[in-house]
What does this fold into?
Amino acid sequence: MIAAVKRIRLEFEDWLRYHPTVRQSLCRYSLLRGRRPDPADTQAVARNIVHLCSVMRLAEDPALARQVNAMIVEQVRQLDPSRIDWREFVTNFDDPRVNKSMILKPYVSPSEKGVLFIAFEEMWIKLLKPTNYRELGERYTVVLSPSCSPPHVLSSYAFPAIFPGPVFTLISHPKDLDYFSQMSPNLIAVPLYASSWVNPDLFQPLPRKERAYDLLMVANFAKVKRHQAFFAALRSMPRDMRILLIGQNQDGRTADTIRESARWYGVADRFTLLSNQPYREIPKAYCNARASVMLSKREGSCVAIVESLFADTPAAMLQEAGIGSRVFLNDETGRFLDSQHLVRDLTEFVQNADRYQPRQWAEQNISCRHSSRILNDLLKQKSLELGQEWTQDIAPMQWAPDPGYLRTEDRQRLEVERRDIQRRFGLDIGPPPVQ
It folds into this structure.
């Protein structure tokens, strides 16, 4: 009885989180609660932008979304960068380390900028820390990589409004191309994702018949990953299905949290659970599974989907999922699942997994090398349009599990540039030198 009550509570909370009517009602209520700040109080304006961004992320009505976006853009114009205390909004703002970042190209000359790649919204704002951030903008073009979609957060609006541009940004969902065009004329959206930089060389697929698991789910232990939906389906799926779950602690939730939820559904003995694994084990796990699944409804681009494809492991996600990597699913790489018939669809997917050929498609269409060429060509084209020079291409990049150099020689070559940025701007950008 207790387990049933806890199951109902989990599922009701999940229903509330994603139901369009509930979200729209919360959106309108939150909008009414907001107060128009004094334009002279920059900190209050920044706080209100944070509030309006939370409203924007709830908006389901396009007309209301446009209205809220216009309000945010108007208030961004009132921001005085010299008077904002970013410590209120950015954890460890004073820490010089800019994590998940890279130097893609060194500064060459006043007519040829270098290129910096900065992932995760909190890290972007650190580039506004030095008093001479305008000099940083004169020396480097910045490519941003957002972590979520919709991308409405303070950093996404404030950074391109303050930092000398243009500013390039990847996307986390196809809809972001429209969102970014409305947020700032200084933003140039690039049709690439965080999941566009997987290195196929890291994956050595095993023959399908030799794989130890039928189904793999790699997802951190946050509620957004919806493990309870998987457990609810697992109750009615074949008992002989070999299942592996891999995750890491998130938002105070651990492997014990997941095991407890599984007990509520009576499936705690139906899978193997591994937690907080080093990244080198993740490619091995994908290469040792016949199929993979992701059941979240809203998140960023989801690198895990593409990692699965390069392991020659077809992937599945919900039909309604707001996940950027959905653009990589097709008849060769995987399928979408009907949440109302999840048991049926997921069981059929696993049973027919050997019919797919995801790695072949992925090698032809998406890889870190492919994406590096696309980004390089876009940066070069824009530089030449602005009358600048382009004599040196960017260093190819991979994401495993953080942004990093594909070639060891690039990391060594750009170490001089990393130290120069430390000296000039007090920022530690890029992977540390190899010891």
